[in-house]
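[job 0412] stage=complex_fold ligand=magnesium ion status=START
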Amino acid sequence: LGGGVETQSITEFYGEFGTGKSQICQQLCVTVQLPYEHGGLDGGALYVDTENTFRPERIMQIAPRFNLDPEDVLKKIIFAEAYTSNHQVVLLENADEVIKDGDIRLIVVDSVTSHFRSEYIGRELLAPRQQELNRHLHKLIRMSRAFNTAVVVTNQVMAQPDAFFAKVVQPVGGHVMGHTSHTRVFLRKGRDNLRIAKLVVSPFLPEGETPLRITERGVEGEEDI
Ligand code: ATP
Ligand code: MG
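[job 0412] stage=complex_fold status=DONE, emitting structure tokens
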């Protein structure tokens, strides 16, 4: 990503189940706490979880790899579970104080679309769904600018309806997601239990791919594999 996740913008990781989206998000909650000279932002993280997949145990596993104390790292992550899309929206609309007080430099919404997708079903609800999602994403952009934070969201994929032969998937959220995520990374499963991360959209980098491996230590890149 040319130096990491950008602040004051939205970075989206999308892909099928088990491709490592939540693993990356949890690891970023650790690495954001690193000092500037080690690539961090010396700040805390706010994790909004819609699928109950955040695990403190996982954070404790990952922290030592970055020479951070697991207990200290955990204390600087503010966790909130969102039960509905409306709850998710309200949580973030009321997060300003928490972000200031917690010295938050990373906001994670994992996943940003799942509630919207499961609640607004059918063609007649597509327009209101997209409108609400759009409002929510713009709120996230405003927050990232106001507080100089990185915003990382995850998103699922669905089969492309008009693809007959090849297995073609596209991210949920259509043009609304596409226009608000400044950086988009597509994750897929590769051979030998590897994951492939493809940079699909970036404001300043060309398309590119890199292998990742999910291990006890977290998500490891090419240099560790
Ligand atoms: P979903 O769409 O269901 O939310 P996801 O993309 O968020 O999926 P993750 O939960 O990030 O998927 O990744 C799950 C993968 O991470 C599994 O393949 C699992 O084996 C692997 N994984 C989780 N914890 C560990 C660990 N401690 N050591 C090795 N691999 C792990
Ligand atoms: Mg997940």
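Helices lie at 21-31, 56-62, 70-75, 85-93, 96-101, 114-119, 126-146, 174-180.
[job 0412] exit 0
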